[in-house]
Amino acid sequence: xxxxxxxxxxxxxxxxxxxxxxxxxxxxxxxxxxxxxxxxxxxxxxxxxxxxxxxxxxxxxxxxxxxxxxxxxxxxxxxxxxxxxxxxxxxxxxxxx
Length: 97
Description:
The protein has 2 helices and 2 strands; from the N terminus they run ααββ.
């Protein structure tokens, strides 16, 4: 549960940084050093989040999928969607005991 709260706070912080960067660039233009710093921090936070998600996906691959129907508001139809319902772990030769 605490991991979810931390992830939500990081996403909110990233959005605040992106908005602050856009405001800085809108007010002062590309000559403002703080705007470049905010933008750099926002890019680094996004890169770290994507790296963590990719690492989690590598360590815990999906072993069972299920098809579900979801509503598509654009076409006003039900569309099938493939969803992971069970995650597993990789087994190495030393772990088989």
